[in-house]
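Lab channel / #folding
Pinned by the channel admin:
"Please post every new chain as: sequence first, then the structure tokens as a reply. Keep commentary short and put observations after the output so the thread stays searchable."

First post following the new format, from NK:
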Amino acid sequence: MELGGERLKTHAPKGVTPRGAALLGVILAVCLAGVLAGCASGSGPEDAYKQLTRVDYSKPYIGMSKAEVLKCAGQPRARLPASGGAETLIYHYSGAGPVPSGGGDKKSSNPFSKKKKKGDTECTASLVFENERLIRVSYAHKEGRSPYQWQSEKDPKKAEEMRTAPLPTCVFSLPRCPR
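Reply from TO:
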């Protein structure tokens, strides 16, 4: 390769022309950029689509006061104080979200509803408050399990059942809150 009458030295392998070496360098740079871009974006287009279309059921409630939440959801199963005046309220519920209990010995207004026994709930929600305002909600099914748990199952039939069974899920709302 010549530049201004001088011949430039290249470090190309034997039998590769300087033009071929330059092309190889460009191809390697493009491939490296593609690999790095793929690493930065997570696990691919499927993951990006899921993240963009995921519904945040707790979003309408963020910013509510603790008094408003207690009025809508009733008393929590547990209260976990944290430093700086933060507090987490834990609710166990079935259905759309926690609602206040009827209280006392009153009969349910729904004649077809079954009386719930302690521990008969499906979901758990953790509501985190800072300065008496709701800042975060986390919720999960009580039987949450890893989608890969079937891989450790020794019985092939049971492993296949676990692999194809849908994972239990929960949604979160405060049905008695005007939001």
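NK: The radius of gyration is 29 Å.
TO: also worth noting, Helices lie at 18-40, 45-53, 66-73, 156-164.
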